[in-house]
Specification:
Keywords: Signal. It comes from Algoriphagus formosus. Residues 1-18 form the signal peptide. The chain has 3 helices and 6 strands; from the N terminus they run ααββαββββ. The protein has helices at 2-41, 45-51, 67-76, and strands at residues 52-60, 63-66, 79-94, 97-110, 113-128, 131-141. The protein is α+β, with helices and mostly antiparallel strands. The chain has a single domain (2-141), classed as Roll (Nuclear Transport Factor 2, Chain: A). The model is unreliable at 3-21 (pLDDT under 50).
Length: 150
């Protein structure tokens, strides 16, 4: 009886610890994702360069490119991510990899005018040493009624 009770207590503690760690890590990645939108709006390429893996890929409505091109586009203002209004988010962890889905309304300055578009943005992060690095960011155009299934 004592062994069963002790086993149950250890199991519950392990589950609580594991869930707490996942939740804490999910929150950490989600917070980083939100900071990314802020840095993009502020054209803070110094912070973004630290976040983006040098070999990351960025998929937009008009093409796919690498980190240096994305940073150039942000710095030059050829696409200015003025505001990303995040409506819904989900994070899933796979070992040292995290996938974030954000349903957003993006206001961006593109080709001389402001454009407002509904997107679900998929972001892939990987823990490298002690830092999270973004490996991929994909914009998918969706209806404003689109929902992220959790």
């Amino acid at each position: 009886m004592k062994k069963a009770t002790l086993f149950l207590l250890v199991l519950i503690s392990f589950i609580n610890f594991t869930y707490g760690q996942s939740s804490q890590t999910e929150n950490e990645v989600l917070e980083l994702s939100m900071l990314k939108w802020k840095w993009m709006a502020e054209k803070d390429v110094n912070q973004l360069e630290k976040l983006f893996d040098p070999q990351a890929k960025f998929v937009h409505m008009s093409g796919t490119w690498t980190t240096p091109r994305e940073l150039e586009i942000i710095e030059s203002g050829s696409i200015w991510y003025k505001n990303a209004e995040v409506h819904d988010s989900a994070v899933e962890l796979f070992g040292n990899t995290a996938v974030v889905w954000n349903r957003i309304t993006l206001t961006a300055f593109v080709r001389g005018s402001d454009v407002v578009t509904e997107f679900t943005v998929t972001e892939v992060y990987q823990k490298q040493d002690s830092d999270w690095k973004m490996l991929a960011l994909t914009f998918s155009s969706v209806r404003d009624t689109h929902q992220i299934e959790k």
